[in-house]
Amino acid sequence: MARKHLAVFLKGFAEKILNQEKTVELRFSQNQILPYKKVTKDDLIFLKVSGEKIIGKVVVDNVLYYRNLSKEEILKIKQEYDKAACMDNEFWEKKINSCFVSIILLKNPIKFLAPLSYKKHDRRPWVILEDE
Prior knowledge:
- 21% of the residues lie in helices and 42% in strands.
- With 132 residues, the protein is of the alpha+beta class.
- It has a single domain (3-119), classed as Roll (Archaeosine Trna-guanine Transglycosylase, Chain: A, domain 4), CATH 2.30.130.
């Protein structure tokens, strides 16, 4: 059962997904929050730039979830996914004490010819739009 999601990105990252430079999305957290355990293979993710419009979409190729992360496990995730995720050292430094991670492998990105508007009035970085 495929879901539709809205993911909010800092400027530049959604564009990297659409250009196929970034093929993995990592969402670390201290608590079990979205998208943890709510994304599955073949789900559709709409890509929104923070403070801007939806600029494209991408399909979930696969997803891995980890909990109770140790610093060693986070460093192992960094080693394996750093290049595909296009994250800098500052990102990894901020995430080193995370407890949960969703590792989302991406495929088939499509950039929209015209960006879509979506009225979102909160600061959540991930929203489930609908279940199909």
